[in-house]
Design a protein that fits this description.
It is built from 11 helices and 13 strands. By secondary structure, the chain is α/β, with parallel strands linked by helices.
């Protein structure tokens, strides 16, 4: 099982309360040195915790495609991806072109993640139609069809979609990888898994999941693969998890208490150590290792750590070191 790190990307991601591109680059280099297999960004124009009762002022965010290209040029080994690019924000041919260029810069280390999008405030702010869930999934299916076709070498490619279309499209110059892996990201409903089984390397979901719930979800994965006449053994499983870790469980619980206190608004007001540990990657080094092993036994191919209670946040650098010790030997 490969282990990845969610990189700092937002104004809340570091203790300083500020973010610049070199922060993400530096942490990608650190992750590589610690033995992580991959590093990941996400895709938002800005972030907000208003839905949790915090202020609605937009929080700064790095643009992921350009940041990923910079990371490609300054690392040597780790795989590079975005969990996940919103299918409505860019024509999928542009996503494919950017990924192909970054794949060349990195020597063939790019993964592409695509999702339907959920944050209505940023759609409205930047002039994108939010529409219905069905509308956004129409865009996602078009994006998966076009990117998978271009990555697979189907030149020229024509696709007449509900949202995105392409007429005799070509991906030149091509990426190093043929094809670049694509992850379809989301909660795992029937439409998402059906599209993933037909058009993607695998399925990604984040950021809280217990092994028992994940095992139940896999029945839907197997059904989608069967419907698509796909061998489930060829279908990747990517899981991102929050977590707090310590050398002892008491240390990890104390880190959780600090993480809970740092969360804006009231979303974690009722959270306890028991409820947090139930569906996150949390505990002592041995407990974290055992939880990771449980997911590996279920077939998870890629485990991505977000080492705090906030997404893409490194509030305490020691947390990254301890997760590396537990999961990568770093």
């Amino acid at each position: 099982m490969r282990v990845g790190l969610a990189l700092p990307q937002y104004g809340f991601s570091l203790a300083s309360g500020e973010i610049i591109a070199t922060d993400a680059i530096g942490w990608a280099q650190r992750a590589e040195a610690l033995g992580f297999d991959s590093v990941w960004l996400s895709d938002h124009f800005f972030y907000s915790f208003a839905r949790y009762g915090a202020g609605d002022e937009p929080i700064a965010a790095l643009e992921p495609e350009t940041t990923l290209a910079a990371i490609a040029a300054t690392t040597d080994r780790v795989r590079l991806g975005i969990l996940v690019e919103c299918a409505t924000f860019r024509h999928p041919a542009l996503v494919a072109k950017a990924a192909a260029t970054t794949d060349q810069l990195s020597g063939g280390r790019v993964d592409v993640g695509l999702g339907a999008g959920w944050f209505e405030q940023e759609f409205d702010a930047f002039g994108y139609r939010f529409g219905t869930v069905r509308d956004r999934f129409d865009a996602l299916e078009d994006a998966l069809t076009i990117t998978s076709g271009l990555f697979g070498g189907a030149d020229p490619l024509t696709h007449q979609g509900r949202v995105w279309s392409l007429h005799d499209g070509r991906l030149t110059p091509p990426p190093v990888q043929r094809p670049i892996p694509i992850w379809a990201g989301g909660k795992g409903g029937p439409r998402l898994l059906a599209a993933a089984a037909r058009l993607a390397a695998g399925w990604n979901t984040v950021w809280r999941m217990a092994p028992e719930a994940y095992a139940e979800a896999l029945s839907s994965v197997r059904a989608a693969c069967s419907e698509a006449a796909r061998d489930p053994a060829t279908f990747g499983l990517s899981l991102g998890l929050y977590g707090t870790i310590g050398r002892t469980e008491e240390d990890a619980e104390n880190a959780f208490a600090r993480a809970r206190a740092s969360f804006p608004g009231d979303a974690m007001r009722e959270e306890t150590w028991a409820s947090w540990g139930f569906d996150t990657l949390s505990g002592s080094i041995d407990q974290v290792r055992a939880r990771a092993d449980a997911f590996a036994a279920l077939g998870v191919t890629d485990l991505i750590v977000s080492p705090w209670a906030l997404p893409f946040t490194i509030a305490e650098p020691d947390q990254v070191d301890l997760f590396a010790e537990a999961l990568t030997g770093g």
